[in-house]
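Dear H.,

Thanks for agreeing to be a second pair of eyes. The structure we're designing against is below in token form, covering all 210 positions.
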């Protein structure tokens, strides 16, 4: 499958100034931008910046960023699922994962996350993919936001809905281990029925195991 990437951008006015939401961006452009020191959700900022540059260079990898002038203050990543996860077992070239989304505290609540997802879906090539995301409550910034798991889950769900992702049932043990965890997905308009059925089999692998 050919991995087309069409660049899109939009301006977002926030209480803390104007942001540019853009992508998918090239590894060169990404490496050239500053990476905000508060982007610490997954690993130290310098390491995460390097990891994003690598993802942007993958054929299927897509990075959409929110930037304040020359500084990245938020991003979302798309790439093939981790080989250790069940979602990679189908070896589907039309299934990609929204692996990480992060916005610095200063711009949270300003619609930055929603707009990262909206700009992601402006690219017509996304209609060729099933996009999934797995939400685990232990990745959420409950302490920083003061929200409980259900309040945070509601915010995450609303944000994902902005990109057209919806809740899907699954028997994945990690997701099933806590009721706040969830699988969300968006099935592109051009995804064929075989891929949809394969995705259904991945969602419910345990029902075929005895």
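And this is the sequence the design step returned. I haven't edited it by hand at all.
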């Amino acid at each position: 499958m050919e991995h087309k990437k069409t660049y899109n951008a939009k301006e977002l006015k926030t209480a803390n100034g104007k942001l540019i939401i853009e992508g998918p961006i090239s590894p060169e452009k990404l490496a050239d931008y500053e990476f905000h020191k508060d982007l610490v959700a997954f690993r130290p900022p310098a390491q995460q910046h390097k990891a994003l540059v690598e993802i942007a260079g993958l054929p299927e990898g897509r990075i959409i960023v929110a930037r304040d002038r020359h500084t990245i203050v938020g991003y979302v990543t798309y790439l093939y699922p981790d080989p250790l996860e069940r979602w990679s077992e189908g070896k589907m070239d039309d299934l990609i994962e929204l692996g990480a989304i992060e916005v610095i505290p200063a711009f949270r609540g300003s619609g930055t996350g929603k707009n990262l997802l909206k700009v992601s879906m402006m690219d017509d090539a996304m209609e060729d993919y099933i996009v999934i995301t797995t939400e685990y409550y232990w990745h959420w910034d409950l302490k920083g936001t003061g929200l409980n798991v259900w309040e945070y889950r509601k915010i995450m769900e609303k944000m994902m809905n902005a990109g057209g992702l919806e809740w899907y049932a699954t028997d994945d043990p990690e997701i099933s281990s806590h009721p706040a965890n969830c699988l969300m997905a968006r099935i592109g308009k051009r995804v064929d029925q075989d891929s949809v059925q394969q995705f259904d089999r991945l969602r419910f692998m345990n029902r075929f195991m005895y």
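Two observations from my side: The chain is about 30% helix and 25% strand. The chain has one domain: 8-205.

Warmly,
E.
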